[in-house]
Please model this.
Amino acid sequence: MTKKIILILFAIFFLIPYFWMGYLSFKPESVIVEIIPTFDDLTFENYEFMFGVRHFYRWLFNALYISIMGVILSVSSATMAGYVLAKKKFPGSQFIFYAMLASMAIPGNTVLIPKFLMMKNLGLINTYPSMYIMCISGIFGIFLMKQAMKTIPNEIIESGMIDGASELQIFWYLVIPMVRPVIIAIALFTFVGTYGGYYWQMLMTRSEVMRTLPLAIEFFKGERQPRIQLTMAAAMIASLPLMIVFVLCYKYFIEGPTMGAVKG
Model:
């Protein structure tokens, strides 16, 4: 009982900023700061203004589109690479795997300039692919997938070969269903990371129409006087897709990363 009470208190503590953000998003602009919440002047005018902003729906579409494309690339590359590294033996496989793990120790900011120059040389600046194509090299997802696929008995794959199944059929019909929790966990990690990739999106976009909603929140802050209520309303809308995805996938969010931790 004591542990549950502590967990509930921690949950309330971490949810207070989110609830306060939602509360401020319904307050009129005339109210700057409040210590004690009051609910007699709540209004939808901030949301009405925000939905009327030019390109708002385009910004929302951009954020969702690049996140979904990032998920597709990340899951595809992680499942295929994980399967090869876990079930196929070839010269240099261990070296490749450990080299990939070592690359996870490199801070992400140190490779921003090389990635930016790569996108510039490919002519992808201010395009959709530039904002999600890097998801194809998700080392963490490949690591999770390899560890999960190592737990699949080789006898299952061999039985598929005996039955005359092709490599693609074994991969799709036998292996993929057994690692579905890990796939969903990787998809969730990628969606959250791509959707909130503020700095990379800022580097890759040049025109206003190519902004994503998290990036466009700066638009609602105002140049001289902070527009707190509008910013909070924009942040609430921007956070809704993440909340919905997490609620739908929270079971796999916990189960997936631990699937390959214990050999069955």
About this structure: Residues 56-87 form the longest helix (32 residues). The chain has 13 helices and no strands.
